[in-house]
Model the fold of this input.
Amino acid sequence: MKLIAITPELPHRREIEFITHILDSGFDYVHLRKPDYEISQLRKYIESIPSQYHNRLKLHSHFVLASEFNVAGLHLNRRFNEIPNGLPQKIKLSRSCHLANELTGLNRYEYVLLSPIFNSISKRGYSSKFSQGDLIEIFKRQETYDKIVALGGIIPNHLIQLSRLGFAGAAFLGYLFNSDAITDLDNKLNNIQNITKCYNL
Done:
């Protein structure tokens, strides 16, 4: 399974350290989701992350910065959905989906994030929109195979269920960034890795 982390909108006091620990633990990507940042703020934020991690970062905004930094890709959403000209050819794309009928044209993307699968940890009142039956129907369609990453309320105990349904991966936000101490984060990362290894996910 792909393992993805998404940064919180509001700053976390140890956010850069958390990002490096998450990637060191074996996560595929960290998505930089800072919708209220000006381009200069996001540039400074990326500069604060050691350069060896840049090729595993995905931008949710200010896509022109991909021409300045060796980032892995761009994540399209309702607010930022246009790709600027002049970006590297190798740039990978992903996007957000919130409805089953948005799951079209998936061959264009490395993966899409489908949410919310479970009740959100980070957004109060943001409840699951998909029943088990809905998800089974989604994964009966050929083009969804190996393209959909689950987002919304994900904790380690969900990973086996998500894999059996057909999800290509899981994206974590609240579960990871609600941690205060780095030791708490590392324990959570170990829980995730233990489950993926034990069940060969």
Notes: The longest strand covers residues 92-97.
